[in-house]
Amino acid sequence: MERLTSPRTIKYIMEKYDFKFSKGLGQNFIIDDSVIERIVDGSDLSADDVVLEVGPGIGVMTEALCEHTKKVVSIEIDKFLIPVLKETVGRFEHLKVINQDVLKVDLMQLVKDEFGDQKPKLIANLPYYVTTPIIMKFLEERIPVSDLIVMIQKEVADRMVAKPSTKDYGALSVAVQYFTEPMIVTKVSRGSFMPMPGVDSTVIRLKVRTEPPVVLLDEETFFNTIKDAFGKRRKTLLNALSSGHLKISKDQAKRALALAEIPEIMRGEALSIHEFATLSNAIYTVKREG
Q1: Topology of 7-208 in CATH?
Q2: How far is Cα 60 from Cα 89, in angstroms, rounded to an integer?
Q3: Structure confidence by residue, pLDDT tens digits, 190-217
Q4: Topology of the domain covering 219-289
């Protein structure tokens, strides 16, 4: 069999297994070898690494991961791809393929069962429609992975690395930067896939922090502050904070902003993660005071 990135190989596999691309599952297979190489390089893979892969497809990325690491566990939602993977990458004894929906799997237990105390690197080519839910599931549930290296829609990656006072900066930016140190690995054109998607992609590496970059009095208040601040971007902080998840009055919002030394007329998009921490701590203090 020719290399798995070859369109001819993909067509052969599709005909042999009567496989059809699923738009509902967002299936797009990589046909550019250089993309695989850039992901491997950007992931800093070593022979001692273990990997949790999501969305192996026909095994293009899986093959490279198995060649560079100690163990790979791949989660594939499409049952029709399981026999394909057995043919394309079944020769690797240190590979385990699980036919499940990653959003429904007990990931904490899976990681413990498959990798013990060693933290795997999550490597995934994610369907665009589930990109954020999957990433945030790993981060919010604190699934023990050391890094998330994921292929996602370019616009989503831009939001994850965005800085304050830019058009891409928002709640996702702050949340991702709270849990991880994000960096762009490489950009991938839409022509690198079969079938060709309607947008360009980016591979982003999210290095999970061992400690948050800020000190919080209450994490729930912090995230509710972020949600309210960006919920209606045109609103000033005074109005945004007193009309959402925090459930505080305008007077309480005014007192919290004064305590945090943040002007009432500012908007959420202007605050850094450290300023959000200061503000959320002030809100938590004000709410406890009543």
Answers
A1: Rossmann fold (3.40.50)
A2: 9
A3: 999 998 888 999 999 999 999 999 999 9
A4: Helicase, Ruva Protein; domain 3 (1.10.8)
